[in-house]
Amino acid sequence: MLEFLGDRSGQILFSSWQHLSLVVQCLILATILSVVIAALVYRSSALTSIANSVSAVGLTIPSFALIGLLIAPFGFGVTPAVIVVTFFAALPILRNAVVGLTGIDRAVIESARGIGMSRFRTLVRVELPMAWPVILAGIRVSAQMVMGIAAITAYALGPGLGGFIFSGLSRLGGANSLESVITGVVAVIILALILDLLLVGLGRITTPRGIRV
């Protein structure tokens, strides 16, 4: 195992960076999309119900099957990987964003409107900061979930550590096959822990002190 790691240390580090980069960029994109959608629907109970249903049903779609379906229109490579990871990343964030925005005390919103804030300014300056801890909790859940899904995108030749896993599984019993699988799996777990710690730090920096207290 040590020989395998030593011989491929550069490749492992590069694939780890690709994997983390894919997940982080898709998380940012998913967060933006989810918050925008939540901001558009949270004032309507019917639209909120639809958003929650979509997020629940979307999680039942097998990621492996979705990747296979996207190969036909988009081919192999980065594009289907980004679409799949972003799609699954957005689902928990969307649900938490809706919950966070709908859970704000209406008296706080009315107070903001009473001092002359527009609806948009109230959303940006009052509601989103108050809902941010709930949204961030959804981002943390999403990050752990899509870290594994990003490895599956190697089926469509997506970037990241999934190549080690699929390569090892395709030749189980052969030379270094088990080492390849273990390397990919352990590296994904380590990246998931690192990203979660970074998100915890982000929460401490970006959450208003009054809300933390």
Give a quick summary of the entry.
With 213 residues, the chain is mainly alpha-helical. The protein has ten helices and no strands.
Topology:
Elements: H1 2-7, H2 9-41, H3 45-58, H4 63-74, H5 78-102, H6 106-114, H7 119-152, H8 162-170, H9 177-206, H10 209-212
Helix pairs in contact: 2-5, 2-7, 2-9, 3-5, 4-5, 5-7, 6-7, 7-9, 8-9
What is the residue-averaged pLDDT? 88
The count of helical stretches stands at 10
Q: Which regions have little confidence, pLDDT < 50, spanning 5+ residues?
A: none
Strand content: under 5%
* Sheet with most strands: none
Explain the overall architecture.
- With 213 residues, the chain is an all-alpha fold.
- It is 83% helix and 0% strand.
- It is built from ten helices and no strands.
- α7 runs antiparallel to α9 (177-206) and α8 runs antiparallel to α9.
- It starts with a helix and ends with a helix.
- The mean pLDDT is 88.
Looking at this protein, list some descriptive labels:
single chain; 213 residues; mainly alpha; 10 helices; elongated
